[in-house]
């Protein structure tokens, strides 16, 4: 019986190269052109940026510290739980402080912070962040309860925490939002995009979201920077809470920096594929049907469906 | 020539801390409140859960055992293929048995299984699972053939197996569904969410899916727990086979546990963005157009498009 | 105080096995049946395929070589930048050459390439690919600028490069497209699916895309193989540039290999959820509204919305 | 300019194999013969052994818990030290308990321990081991002090702990000796051999060693199972405290299990290459010169050198 | 309460660099000088060498295939043992074949082997190596038995296999010696040095060693290239079987390539620190005492000690 | 057919714990006692030490930069060699600078260096170290040549560089000695101990060693801090160049800090096991035989053996 093996290759290697010197030179020139176009002088060229890899580890460690029995290591028990929580927090907060310093140094170009300012601010930010963690755990407990109550397929709160991408997304968001409010938009955005990549749920870290929030399935959900969401709100996959893009400024450029995303009041449900655009308000307790396209406010208790919209059209 | 280096930091470190003791205490209190609200006493606090990381490795190893030449290690050949398959199965099935025991112990709270019951059940479950693998390989061969026939961009069956997220999703689903039917909803759901995270395709492990199934592109597809799908069915991205959510029980809570997702008969095609809701039936050979919103049964051979729906509306 | 520990298990192990011999035999039979159905004889059974893991590392290394200060290692500075770029290119291009050889050997079944042909072609392909990299960097600089100008939430070009999934997707696409055009559809497709898995954005490597391209949010975007996109085009999440699938050939099979996806001219904006199908042309400067379903060409400067479409329907 | 590349190998692979089936069969037969010669029936064939890799991690974790500021992670400080120590102990002791169970199960063949006995014993052993750790730290502090005082090249106690192989060896020994005395000779021996491999110092875990022990350089030191060493003893490289091997039993086999290694009293120094054999006693405060070969007891305060030995020979 | 944190470093980085360009140039010049002095032209500059890391993995995998229940993965049992052995061999032998090719290509400079020769030889070498493995297992079984019988501290054959560095060294040697005899001195030497680094036992791969060989403790043992050792020989730490170095050639250079190390006949014991030099013969059943310095042959049954030597000196 | 599986463990876990709180408290007390005994106040408790793991990577990277074709990555060739060297140096020197700062901060307790001093000194030290690397390469080339000429078993200079522990030891020493002379005894010692652990060769970083140095076999060699070794010196295993330990100061403590190790002049050979003690001089071209014990100077051209020593004894 004979078989085939992987080929070993010839003993006489062939002759060629990738012309590295010329490629390296051309890339050098391309970088130089870009930096000149951006007004970036050489004194900028050594700054480091916050690291996605580092922030991924930091969030995973904080998540384990928040839910040690579910997301922590196996074997944990009552007598060792607090040791684990304390050690995980020490590691994660030290690492977070490094990322905070990197962002503050980065923005120091613009705001002129001194080294002493950066150090003092970073300490204050991480201390406040740490102090806010217990409240975040309670908010997330409410989110988990909402998921368990809102999905007929959910069998236990543990399944919800371990499996549901919507819970993973809101966990990242609640941490990212704390950092966004502390003046760290870049660190916050990186955390949000980690969750986006893992879940397909894109929540801008600026969005304000109340307790008991639940997103089912989740893929394709987009929630914009200035959205405001009340308590016990439930969303399904592919819901957009976006800006109304057709409106432009006088010079044709997009208007920046203003409230431009929806306000969703308490106890609202928005079904899959619905698109809600602009600084409109969805009144408390309303229900927005699947695939609905909504660009105007609706009063509390509204039941909006495609049919009702078409019926309402003249 | 001078360059800038990364700063080294001062020799005189600054003074501060994260107040770990108080944060740890407050998190301890938050956990205690949650456990009390859930009626969880201390005898529960050391149970372990099935592990997403372990299940990810198990599925990857089983996939390599099912398709050794495509998903196995480089260098495999006829004379070594069965050794690889046998060894991979031994490793994966042992590891799976551990996860099965973890879920059975977890659910032992509710169903009162003894240690002996758990051991006997786990052995029986894994033996049945192992015995079912050859049939799963044949089903997946049919799925791959369907993809190759259904996509004009596909160049070979190998490209389909190596590249298509739809194949990755159905591979996870077929394994998860076996475990779901064996009474392991948590393990099954974790496997389903692994595929969801990687592909954006969310198939509940309870869904029943026939041979020759193909999802193209796939991002945003949602298939519910009680869906029943026939043979040679083809879906495109963002298709939802969901429950009709507006119906509620008498006390306002959602009705649980009943057949509530569509039945899709053989040879149906459903195009991108279509939403099919409720326990309705899509008759054999029908074609459902893109973005269609469908909440009632259609007979075999139907050709449903947005236009036809609007024309049919009175 | 007493705690619970993880159970150790009994000293007397139980008796059972997984019946590996029979499962291995049945899987062997299933593989044999499949290979026979595919006409694959044993001389095919040892070929290796391009590796997703290897290509993921190659693209990450090339991305770092293209943007050393942003995506390269920490600590880089002017005096070390070119060393890093040159070394990264050497490593990545050598590794890419191995993957190119694997694909050329794989397709040698069909095109009859000799070993010498494969070697010569692979060298030529990688040399051309390397020489094209500086231009790709300039194209990507234009893409980043477009994102920064097009999103009111973007705070800096650095945030765009580090965070935006749309930039990650176009970076992968521009490299994949080079390889697609060099006659490596399988390698190109694997790179495209790496980006699809990370971002939810599915761009077929055959698509032609001009400079200054920006996709915001991105989840659910699908761009087909023969799409042609001009300069400064902007897309939002869940936009499909697809084929019009209802058209079939005479024998009922799908028609393959022809131009079947849209042409999008310069300066077009397509909002979230819009579906554009078939070989139609979106004229320069047009704006396609959210959720619009479009299967016919529109002239330059068109403003298409759901309302305008319904108004235009007879 | 032309360079050489790594060869790619031919497209036409050559034909051969390793005849795996026959090698596997012959190895199977060799194992069967061995097991028969050892009287090992199949009921033995699934037992697991303690793991060198696991024990290496356990010892490293315990070392960090014993010396958190020197051997623990960077960034530790007063406020986080106890959290780290507690968490590290929890992880290491749980892992140690698994290894203890493996050894007790292994020896259960001989001593007939039941599953309940094994569980109870393993818990008791690990609890006693944990309770003994603080005293081991104090012993090791004395060892470090002795090294710092005894070596003119030592600049600080920190250098001693971080660099000296003799300290690494005694740290492993003190932990291994606790386990040896608890009835775990296999686990203890594996730990001893980890240190032997790293340092070239071979201390049998049965050896009894007092406080303030220091080995300088260390390579080639051998200390036998029944050696007894007092306080403040100092050894140099290649010192052997061995059994006197020329004595044999009546049937020609080596006598086993009796005290057969030296007793070294307090404050003795033994210089490099000295060989001390048999159950002899080196009296308190003696000094044994380099390369000395000693097989009889010497009184307290002796100064033994090669010259003195030769002078003493008749 | 206040603590100290790791310093963050200043926002204003300092100015300096490592003058990389000049260091790189000077190193380039140093390499060029060396290559010129060695007569190495550019056609040599791309050859690869056998890899220590790869060979370490290969030997570890072969060891697990030889002793699957002791050195293989946990969980192995009768029904899965052969699958593991077969798969491990396939992986290890393929990897070994790559290393064999690298050495044959390296030596092709000298012996003028063609690419076809290299391929054919490498296949033949690995096939013979594979076929010899079962006999090596039987030899190693005899070695293990010898260790268990020869050391009063050994409690079981399993402890011997898992713990004794002498067994680790002879396992590496038996594999290395096969490869040395097959004409692969470089691969063989690398394997020998892996064992030397782990155990302190330095056995040249050319040494011929019979069954039932045991080295106790082992650190410092050196066995030369042309040594010949019979069956059931036992050595202790720091034994040298070396060449007699004082003899030199006429031109003052060392004589190369001739038999220059001892012949040790069956059933010899050599105690710690003994030095045996030159092409002498230690007769069957002799015993060489500790620290003995021996440069002339001794007849069978000799009992050599320091005392006996001194007595024999005139 | 039935097999045994690994036991799963009972569903009813047993009750116990490790009494972590009391162990943590007792360890806290032990640390407090130690720190008080050492006069270490809390302002010392957060300093970091140089890291053995980091230094191991740094030396490995520098070794690859010094010998890119032999110790660098596979695939390197003329056109990519300098890129690799430059990038490796940048990475290694940056990492070294961090370790240098850690040692300077550590010693700042004693020498009162300010933060600015530390920064300036560390930059200067690393610049000088970098500038000295090309000369170290040339020294190592001479060492390799000496090994190849001095060992009849050596087949090529490549085998020597890849395999010989003596070369690995001198490579570490030459780098460590540069750092020792730059005032970094702790970093230097850690590097020396890395080599000691890997090779069994213990060279204090303070030792001065000339070009063309070769240690064969090497295990057990010890070279003291103030040793001075000329050019073309060759040592064998277990040679000690130590201090004469029997001499003590008036108060009984060992005398520190003075020249106390041998001076070995050019072209000396010292055979295995020889012990040379005290500030004596071995004259140029001398040969010291195996196991010789030498504590007095010998003139150039001496041939010292055990026999010659005994003959010389009165």
Mean pLDDT of chain A: 87
Number of extended strands of chain A: 14
Distance between the termini of chain A: 80 Å
Describe the global form of chain A: globular
Percent helix of chain A: 40-55%
CATH topology (fold) name of the largest domain in chain A: serine acetyltransferase, domain 1
Strand order of the largest sheet of chain A: 1-4-7-10-13
Instruction: Provide the gyration radius of chain A in Å.
Output: 25 Å
Low-confidence stretches of chain A: 1-15, 41-46
Report the CATH architecture of the largest domain in chain A.
Answer: Orthogonal Bundle
Task: Specify the oligomeric state.
Answer: homohexamer
Structural class of chain A: alpha/beta
Number of helices of chain A: 9
Number of domains of chain A: 2
The fraction of residues assigned to DSSP E strands of chain A is: 5-15%
Question: Biggest interface and its residues per chain?
Answer: D-E, 71 and 73 residues
CATH top level label of the largest domain in chain A: Mainly Alpha
Write the element-wise H/E pattern of chain A from the N-terminal end onward. HHHHHHHHEEEEEEEEEEEEEEH
Largest sheet report of chain A: 5 strands, parallel
CATH superfamily assignment of the largest domain in chain A? Answer: serine acetyltransferase, domain 1
Task: Write a brief structural summary.
Six copies of one chain form a homohexamer. With 314 residues, the first copy, chain A, is α/β, with parallel strands linked by helices.
SSE inventory with pairings:
The structure is a homohexamer.
Chain A: H1 20-37, H2 52-66, H3 68-71, H4 78-111, H5 115-150, H6 157-163, H7 165-181, H8 185-199, E1 202-203, E2 208-209, E3 214-215, E4 222-223, E5 228-229, E6 234-235, E7 240-242, E8 263-264, E9 269-270, E10 275-277, E11 281-282, E12 287-288, E13 293-294, E14 303-304, H9 306-312
Parallel strand pairs in A: 1-4, 2-5, 3-6, 4-7, 5-8, 6-9, 7-10, 8-11, 9-12, 10-13, 12-14
């Amino acid at each position: 019986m004979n078989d085939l093996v992987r080929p070993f290759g010839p003993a006489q290697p062939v002759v060629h190269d990738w012309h590295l010197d010329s490629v390296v030179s051309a890339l050098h020139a391309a970088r130089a052109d870009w930096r000149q176009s951006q007004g970036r002088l050489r004194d900028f060229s050594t700054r480091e940026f916050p690291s996605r890899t580092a922030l991924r580890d930091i969030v995973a460690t904080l998540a384990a510290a928040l839910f040690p029995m579910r997301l922590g290591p196996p074997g944990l028990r009552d007598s060792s739980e607090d040791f684990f929580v304390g050690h995980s927090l020490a590691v994660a907060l030290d690492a977070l402080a490094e990322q905070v310093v990197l962002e503050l140094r980065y923005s120091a170009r613009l705001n002129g912070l001194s080294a002493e300012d950066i150090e003092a601010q970073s300490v204050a930010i991480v201390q406040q962040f740490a102090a806010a963690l217990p409240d975040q755990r309670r908010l997330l407990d409410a989110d988990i309860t909402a998921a368990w109550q809102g999905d007929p397929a959910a069998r236990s709160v543990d399944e919800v925490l371990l499996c549901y991408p919507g819970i993973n997304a809101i966990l990242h968001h609640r941490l990212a939002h704390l950092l966004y409010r502390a003046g760290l938009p870049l660190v916050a955005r990186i955390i949000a995009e980690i969750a986006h990549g893992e879940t397909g749920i894109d929540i801008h870290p600026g969005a304000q979201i109340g307790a008991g929030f639940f997103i089912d399935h989740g893929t394709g959900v987009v929630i914009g920077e200035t959205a405001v969401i009340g308590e016990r709100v439930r969303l399904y996959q592919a819901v957009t809470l976006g800006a109304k893009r057709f409106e432009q400024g006088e010079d044709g450029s997009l208007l920046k920096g203003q409230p431009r995303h929806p306000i969703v009041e308490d106890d609202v449900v928005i079904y899959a594929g619905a698109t809600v655009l602009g600084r409109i308000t969805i009144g408390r307790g309303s229900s927005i049907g699947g695939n609905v396209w909504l660009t105007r406010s609706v009063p509390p208790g509204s039941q909006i469906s495609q049919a009702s919209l078409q019926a309402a059209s003249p």
